[in-house]
Amino acid sequence: MVLWVNKKELEHFLPLIPPDLRGRVKNGQWFCLGAVSEPENVASGVMLFSSQDIINSAGEIIVLMQLHWIYVAEKFRKQGIGKELIKAFTDVCDDNPAEGIICQLPIDSEYDDAEAFLSSCGFSFKETGTNEMIVTKDDIEKAAKFNTSDDHVKNSNIKSVMELSDAEFTKALNRIKNEEKNIYSDSLSYEKEDYASDVSVVYISEGEVSSIVLFTPINDENLQLLALYSADKNGAGELLKLLDYAAEYFFRNYPSNSKVYITFCNEKSKKLADYVFPEKKTITLRAGLYKSKEKGGMN
Are 22 and 14 contacting, i.e. CB atoms less than 8 angstroms apart? Predict the structure, then answer.
């Protein structure tokens, strides 16, 4: 049996969810479907997903769902529970005004079985130019350009996004959306409160936002870097200053086991991260798509 998991029921499914993902379910950013095995009435599987409005290249607002995590407890595998979860999820998609479901898997043989499983459920996959990197506080300390014993001082050209007027922030986001045109930029929120304001910062040049980095909190410990953008083609220096500021604040103020999840949608941002963290490997991703039946998807 598959059910929508509410806050009261969530504690029964938490052991099936990685600790660094639990915060997004608890705070309502992500939704949860759970499988319960009968007659034991035991949580046997779980799926995490989100829904987002994005503006596509034609300027239209569309709804996409994103699959973030699916897991079946080892004791209950090979009983069709995974397919039950996917079927419940695609039914949600088909019954709502969503264009489809997206997901991402690393290009690694370890995930080939996951791709085969999702493909059998109606997903189609292709390789992308998108890469990911996971950065720890140890990585930041190794790469630090700052003196970890000194006080944290902010460059006068650097401001928190919360210091911007709504009009200034909207203008900066529109520039990103118009130039980047990918699923990550399309889904950026215009609400400043949706970002981690302590490390989401901009560089001001000649009175205007010229470069910006945006993070969103995953939970109380971890962050995801959503945007790394400069309006100047030669703005790598500004971005490095913003990253140094954010890295220093993160290093000093976040718990020791905190991590930053970074997604690179273009070669420029990847090269910049490779420069900052030369010892870190990036993970190349493959993208999966399930198209809603209403939009011509598979049965």
Answer: yes
* CA distance linking residue 267 with residue 154, whole number of Å: 28
Instruction: State pLDDT tens for residues 137-148.
Output: 999 888 876 554
Tell if the pTM clears 0.85, that is, is over it: no
Most confident of 127-136, 207-216, 272-281: 207-216
Q: Going by C-beta distance under 8 Å and a sequence separation of 6 or more, which residues neighbour residue 121?
A: 83, 86, 87, 90, 290
| More confident call, 113 vs 39 | 113
Q: From CA 101, how far away is CA 227, in angstroms rounded?
A: 22
Band of residue 299 on the pLDDT scale cut at 50, 70, 90: very low
> Of 31, 158, 99, nearest to 292 (Cα)?
99
Burial-class residue 245 by CB neighbours within 10 Å (0-12, 13-18, 19+): buried
Specify the pLDDT at position 56: 61
Cis-peptide, bond into residue 39, ω within 30° of zero? yes
Q: Cα dist. 116→24, 122, 124, 126 in Å? A: 27, 10, 10, 12
Q: Is 122 left (phi over 0), alpha (psi -120 to 50) or beta?
A: left
Indicate the length of the chain as a whole number.
299
Average pLDDT, the chain: 85
DSSP-assigned letters across all residues of 108-124: SGGGHHHHHHHHHTT-E
Spatial distance between the Cα atoms of 80 and 92, rounded to a whole number of angstroms: 19
Q: Measured in whole angstroms, how far is the alpha carbon of residue 266 from the centre of its chain?
A: 16
Q: Which residues contact 256 (CB under 8 A, 6 or more apart)?
A: 137
Query: CA 135, 140, 146: angle at the middle one, nearest 5?
Result: 155
